[in-house]
Amino acid sequence: MLYLFELGGYNMYNESKISQAMMESYKRFHDKNIKHFTGLFATKWSNINPEMYFDCMFEDDALSLDNIMSIYKFKDKDNKVIDHNLKESFIMSLKLILSYMKKHDMKELVEYCNLRDLCNLKILEHFMKGYVSKLFLVLMIRRRYVVLNDDDRASLPGYVFDDYRNTCYVLDDMEDFITESMIKFNRNLINGTCKTNSKA
């Protein structure tokens, strides 16, 4: 007889014979834990990310629920610092680009994104100098404001493309922040000011 188990999100097949009593015991244990964790995430742990919590369960130090929660809190704090830094660098990019566009009398962001100095895209030059964040650059590439040719791609560090998919996931997670920031950017561009909200 072929039995199917779930372990850490993966299916495991075991062809050895297992008693019906053991199967029933496993099912009761499994159902009890599912109900227990579902209740926690709906009440006491409502502010905890379930996916990240279960990832922490498979860390080497995850020996008990207390250990798992300690690992989760450490990762959550680290993620919030990263999130804050990403937002700050994104806002700084908008400020610098807005200032540059006003100085050169540009009316549309796509105009800046396609501006070339000789053969080089200005946005890539600004990225290489640290004026534009990777997050903003990938957003512009993703929205097709920036269209790269082979020379453009060759001029960029490999990590931009190696990490492209992960950066897109970050953009998805920060969608509300990105939308709000871009609305303020466009409003400031129309009004002729260089102010942006720097609150993350």
Can you walk through the features of this model?
The protein folds into two domains: 1-46, no CATH class; 85-191. Strand 3 and strand 4 form a beta hairpin. Helix 3 packs parallel to helix 10 and helix 6 crosses helix 9. By secondary structure, it is mainly α. Strands 1-2 form a two-stranded antiparallel sheet. Strands 3-4 form a two-stranded antiparallel sheet. It has ten helices and four strands; from the N terminus they run ββααααββαααααα. It has helices at residues 20-42, 50-56, 65-103, 109-113, 122-128, 134-142, 150-155, 158-162, 164-173, 175-191; strands at 3-7, 10-14, 116-117, 120-121. It starts with a strand and ends in a 9-residue tail after the last helix.
How do the strands and helices of this protein lay out in sequence?
Layout: E1 3-7, E2 10-14, H1 20-42, H2 50-56, H3 65-103, H4 109-113, E3 116-117, E4 120-121, H5 122-128, H6 134-142, H7 150-155, H8 158-162, H9 164-173, H10 175-191
Antiparallel strand pairs: 1-2, 3-4
Helix pairs in contact: 3-10, 6-9
